[in-house]
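Feature request disguised as a bug report, sorry. It would help if multi-protein outputs had a clear separator. Right now it looks like this:
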Amino acid sequence: MLFAGCGIQIFQMITGIDATVYYSPTIFKNAGIESDQEILAATVAVGSSKTIFILVAIFLVDKVGRKPLLYVSTIGMTCCLFVLGIALTLPNSAFGINLAILAVCSNVAFFSVGMGPICWVLSSEIFPLRLRAQAAALGQVGGRVSSGLVSMSFLSASKVISVAGVFFVFAALSAISVLFVKVCIPETKGKTLEQIEMMFRGEKNSNRGEVEFGDAERLIPTEEK
């Protein structure tokens, strides 16, 4: 549980969302936008995308489930970060500029529909009540430290490997986050705390070496069904 809860908090940050939001003017300038007004308009578009898709996540999280939204989010972010890296290798071209704006806005949108809000939902669901506060706080420490490292190192790293290179790194980390979601994150939609705890027990006791999160109903004793 701790590995899943802390891991999702860390992956939420190391995939570069804070760098994308905080340094979006720098990204757009690197893509070739020179006008301050155009940079401001593109930055406003980024903020608007984030707000709109957080609202979308609110309506979908209990209908679609946590894990499907995380898949959509992490896969979408991986593609957008990779495309952004490509766009930043084509500076001073209208196609590169438009592609960069689209990639940044789409990346923020995919983050806001999955990794952003669901990270907090899972932290409130997967830990038992007796340890929830401590475990959630520990996960948040990992997330905040990761956020600080990404935010403080972005400009320095971009000077060494270029802004495009940094986003290729973020794309690789986002691809790893897809595997993390597949292996370590359970689907908690409609599950009680007891059922969620049994799912993690099933993972620990599995002799096949894989997570059997889909077998929660099989793990529940007959009298509890």
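(second protein starts here, but nothing in the output says so)
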Amino acid sequence: MAMALQVEITHTFHASRELVFQAFTTAEHLQNWWGPKGWAFEVSEADFRSGGVFHYSQKPDDGDVMWVKFEYGEIDPPEKIVYTSYFSDEAGNVVRAPFDANWPMRILNTMTFAEDEGQTTITLITAPVSPTEEEAKTFEASHDIMREGFGSTFKELDTYLAKK
């Protein structure tokens, strides 16, 4: 895979690595901060282990429900999470992204968690899995939008962690 297709995003949280890791691996935490601000969020399935899945829906006030599913390849508490994500239907079957027919069908995500003096820096590397040429172009053209989206989501987690 071409390095240009990878997106690397880092963010530092003012919380312990254990708490930040838990925020990414428990439905009780995730339902309080994951996704775009103001969107409804519901967990359908949460099995946070290697081989497990996280299946959820999210919905903006003025739009349709979108389903997303994560399939976990590796969970190494509290250091690393590797998962493949994709848009799905309510039953969990892979479907095309509702916003772009050329969005890659599957995305591989690797998150690492490093703690230093009570702060935790996560590094997220995300890349399409076996994209077509059109999917690769769409993904590459979306790097800035992905950084903005994850940045906004991580700010939601900042706010949530400040209450813990």
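Even a blank line would do. Unrelated, but nice: The chain has one domain: 3-162.
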